[in-house]
Amino acid sequence: MAVKMLPSLIAVVVCFARIAFAIPHHELEDIFAQAKTAFADANYPLAVKHFRTLKELLPDWKDNYINLASAELQTGNVNAMLQVYKEAVSKFSSDGPIHSRYCELLAKTGDMADVERPEDGIQACERAVSLEPRLKSNYLYSAETLKLAGRVNQALVVYAKADALFPEDAEILRPYCAYIADIMDAFFNHPTARLPPNGYEICAKVAEMLPEDSDILQKLAVALKVGMQHEAAIAVYELWLQKFGDRNLKDTIHIKATLAKTLINGGKRDRADELAKECLAAERSRSHLNAAALVRAIGWPYDRLGWELQVEETDATINSIKIRNEKMCPSGKWRIALNYTEEAELHPDRLSITFLNSDTAHQTYGRTDDPIFIGPLVPKYPHLFLEKAVYLVLFKKDVFLTGLNGVVHADCTVYAGSHHANIGLQTFPMTDDTPIVEIHDRAVSIMLHQMQNYYHWVAEALPKLLLLKEHVLDKPEYKDVKVIVPSKGVAKTLEDTLGMEEFAFLKDRLITFANPTTTRYHFTKGLFVVDWVHARDDVHGTLAESQWAVYWPPKHVHSIVRPFFHAALRKRGTFPDVTAASTNDQTIVYVQRKGGVRSFANEDQVCAYLSERFGNRLLIHTGGEGLLRQVAVFAKARVVVGNHGAGLTNFMFTQPGAVLVTIPKDPMVDFCFANMVAGMGERHFVVSEIPGAHYVGSYPALSAKHMELLGNVIENAYEMSSVGEVGEHDEL
Ligand SMILES: *[C@@H]1O[C@H](CO)[C@@H](O)[C@H](O)[C@H]1NC(C)=O
């Protein structure tokens, strides 16, 4: 094994004869000499033996513990080494150096050890700090040990404390910044991490102190990128390329691929595309394909090349899965499954399917005269959609779930279903060494892409849960079936929703899908999922081969979600009566995205204008209220207005006859709300006259002329809306 350090023996010149009394002095000298010789000859097992003898004879001789531990480490027995220190710190409980040394070794070798009680080590580190609070290394090793034990917040606290005690110290700031950047980059695995608000400032400071440190400059860029400071992140990556770009081809290409992704988020699509292509030319690796596909997805609407790159990335990923576990895939050769019907016919022993919408699947919805464009036609804007087929799928036994998106896999097969090439395998653990959590309950999974995002929760995961409730969870024969949900903190709206009394029946039936990128869950007794798949022959061309359409739910969803929430309001007596004459108040809901991406640069002025023009009819929605309060706001709306963003998902809660007014992105790539409006059978205005924002950018300030235009469109939409006149009978 690779031992990270080679500690030498402490050169002890101790007159141990004074301590010992039962054994003649020269005998002790002899044993010690033999131990030292054995150590010098690299006969570590023998050295261990002698040091152990000495420990028995002279239990109060401190330095002997250190020597014994060093010898244990040399035999490769990290656990035995740590055990010796554990004994020593309990014996010499007010000895600073021995605590410090133990903590250091824990930090350096803890990942190789089989640490049963990490608290012991953490306590030793805490004690080291309190015994020698001025010793900088105590903080560094404490933080390291906490990191190894997965104590993210405690580690952050130790770094912050060290930073306060030793200000402007690169030795502290360097690992502190690196840790912040790593946590930010893998936030889904640490949803409850309390990161300092000035994370990238810490990195910026140390990057300035260590101008030749390429790693730290990269961490700074990562912190900025994840913190959505795209412009600054781009500048730092460009600086990195300038300073270090000619050193190591591999690192440079990696930075270029990351820069390409940052550039597309910064709205610089041409340079992003150019860099992504350069990376592909160097190597058509998974990560380069991923960057190139992302650039095309965000930069070019319905891009054929983007889809092809996505398919290539997925194929490359499936081909590089190395799992050969007996239970999963003894042959080690993996494939992707896109069609549950075919799979169930081929392998009735593995899975079975129930077709949930056979009466409506493959029917067309939408209308050719919707949306109404105010301004130029938006290229590729879809109008008609083919209803997806909705299935309840039962994987009968020994099925596995892992990765951020909860990818189902078993029998050498990755089940992509509705997500096709966009299944999201970037965080799928590809090897056999991933720990497996055995689940012996039958379960349903609602895990999917970006569950923490409001749109993906309300439009995708929640409807799946409602269908699973109806077809599985509510049935007496499935009383034992559990539900897989993300860790606490990942999806606030999920917690709010599950907090509704409508879901009280799930109490004691939840299983947390924790650390999904580093853990594999094995369902020994089977797993249910609901999934929807678009027709192979997509006559309208709006769903197939689109990196975005995989996230658009079928029309069927709207016949479930809307009534579910309206019933919840009725039950609580908060369903708005929109037929009464007094209900013009707050029937125009403007969805504000203040400060967020895709908000107007002059959001306050826009709101002031709309307030003045529409008076009491207007409600500015900021999203601070609880979920059901929010549902009630939208259930009262005749017109919902907003820039493209998750807040528009709330349109799903409106009553029949409501109208959506939206300002598109530029380029407009994700038409999820077009699908939503069509699926609900409603109408929408797309105000393309107003300059748009790119995918994660800001909308430019709205001019006075455009404010007036927006106001006029809202007025038209209001005229067109028929809330309270139609459709309610469907739900009553
Ligand atoms: C799945 O396969 C079946 C049988 O070959 C076929 O009829 C069906 O159209 C396919 N479904 C999709 C969504 O492609």
TrEMBL record:
Species of the source: Chytriomyces confervae
Gene3D superfamilies given in the database record: Tetratricopeptide repeat domain (1.25.40.10)
Assigned keywords, A-Z: Glycoprotein, Glycosyltransferase, Signal, Transferase
InterPro entries: Glyco_transf_61_cat, Glycosyltransferase_61, TPR-like_helical_dom_sf
Lineage, broadest ranks: Eukaryota, Fungi, Fungi incertae sedis, Chytridiomycota, Chytridiomycota incertae sedis
Keyword Transferase: yes
Identification of the protein by name: Glycosyltransferase 61 catalytic domain-containing protein
Molecular function via GO: glycosyltransferase activity
Record domain Glycosyltransferase 61 catalytic: where: 454-661
